[in-house]
Amino acid sequence: MMTTSLDYGELQYGWELAYQHQDTEQPLWQEAAIPVIDDAIEPLSSAGARSVVDLGCGDGRNLAALVAAGFSCMGVDIAPTGLAHARTTARPAFLLRADATDIGLIDNPVDAVTCFDVFGQIQDPSSLVSEARRILRPGGRSSSTRSPTKTARTARARRSHPHTFAYNDTLFRYYDEDSIRELFAEWEVTSLYRRSWDDPPHGDFRPYPHRHDNWIVLATPR
Fold first, then answer.
1. Where does the record place Low complexity bias (predicted)?
2. What are the pLDDT digits (tens) for 125-141?
3. What is the pLDDT of residues 32-73, one digit of tens each?
């Protein structure tokens, strides 16, 4: 698995700064959930999942969609300002400030773990997979997205390693299919495919329209 010499502590803080600089009347991303949210909600609902932990919930736009779908939810994020926004958008979800790779003890294992656009910002992605596995009940499911290697990087990004860049003090890591399957080697991958969509500008963080090209992964621990 790739490693990076970037200062991960500083890069984590970059997300907090991005949330702090957003317009208080306008979310950093957008009010609507990620366009592939139904790709997670439908299979989790069909499997009878009731409790969901959303790792790296940010400002709560995806968490709000999970709550609206009827799940009992907990959102986890390291950025306190992002969580402050989530408190207004994702009620009555429980919110926890923690590193998504080590959230600490939870009362009971959960039915499902979701993780949207977070794997690209994790120094050691295997630790995120391990944490998802730890908090899942036997037979629980995980749904996640991450960017493929063909995603174009911005001209202002600073390259560290192949498929790893720093942009606005945040880490971006891209994946090919082999690296994803390696991450989930101890899981049964029930679905793995790519979806693309156009995103509007994200305030000063990424002030221009751009295209997302992501892997969608649904998996169950063996």
1. 137-152
2. 899 999 999 999 999 99
3. 898 899 999 999 999 999 999 999 999 899 999 999 999 999
Where along the chain do its domains lie?
8-56+103-221
- Whether residue 7 has pLDDT greater than 60: no
The 8 Å CB, 24+ separation contacts for 176-185 are: 176/148, 176/149, 177/148, 177/215, 179/1, 179/2, 180/146, 180/215, 180/217, 182/1, 183/1, 183/125, 183/126, 183/129, 184/129, 184/217, 184/219
144-183 in b/e form (b: 16+ CB < 10 A) is bbbbbeebeeeeeeeebeebbbbbbbbbbbbbeeebbeeb
- For residue 102, the tally of other CB atoms under 10 A from its CB is 11
Q: Are 50 and 74 in contact (CB under 8 A)?
A: no
- Residue 152 sits at φ, ψ, to 5 deg, of -70, 135
- Contact at 8 Å (CB) between 141 and 49? yes
pLDDT category at 27 given cuts 50, 70, 90 is low
